[in-house]
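Structure request: Ty3-gypsy retrotransposon protein, Cucumis melo var. makuwa.
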Amino acid sequence: MLVMVTDVDTDEDRMAKLEKINMLMKVVKEKDYEIASLKNHIKSHDATESSHTHTVENADKGKTVMQESQPQNSTSIASLPIQ
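Returned structure:
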């Protein structure tokens, strides 16, 4: 009887492959955590920026002025003259 064997893994080969798979799964979990942390950071940063925008009514000429705090703690004011 003739038996042909090809591409046979030993137990050591299988264990090495399982270790590599486990290592990759760990890396993926760490990257997922990192991505989630960055998303939360961006979300909280965006929420902070949006909470710094205020609308102020100018009593002198009935103009609406948008006031927004910049990250450098400066304030920019824009207005349009009414004719």
